[in-house]
Amino acid sequence: MKRREFITVASSIPVVIAACSPKAAKQVASPPRADGFQRVGTVADLDKNGQILAEQVAGSNKVLVVRDPMNKSKIMAVKPTCTHAGCTVLWQQNQNAFVCPCHDSKFASDGKVQQGPADEPLATYVAKLEGDSILVKVG
Ligand code: FES
């Protein structure tokens, strides 16, 4: 490979890595309603990024919401704190799993461990669609 070709290839690597990294739409949860559900975002937010990372959720701090890979009309919500050492997991669409960036633990959409070193599942929460809103109930 010639020097000019190498420089061209090397300079495009960060772009490729950034394109493969998952991103979550970050939202601040609304205060809990009388029935305990909190609004954490919209369907448009979810479909744009494939996941919503909601912060300031009563009872959990953070909640990560994705569509159920087995039934796209349903949604799943987990506490995104890795049970190994506490890093924040994100949904990796190409692996159909929540993946921890620290030591590569993987969790299924229902929170179950698929690959360690984590040996405990992610906590899961009740989640539902109500019109265009995504609602989560912790506890
Ligand atoms: S903190 Fe997630 S695998 Fe270690």
From TrEMBL:
The keyword Disulfide bond applies. GO terms for molecular function: 2 iron, 2 sulfur cluster binding; metal ion binding; monooxygenase activity; oxidoreductase activity, acting on paired donors, with incorporation or reduction of molecular oxygen. Residues 38-136 form the Rieske domain. Keywords: 2Fe-2S, Disulfide bond, Iron, Iron-sulfur, Metal-binding. GO terms for cellular component: membrane. Its cofactor is [2Fe-2S] cluster. It comes from Microseira wollei NIES-4236. This is Rieske (2Fe-2S) iron-sulfur domain-containing protein.
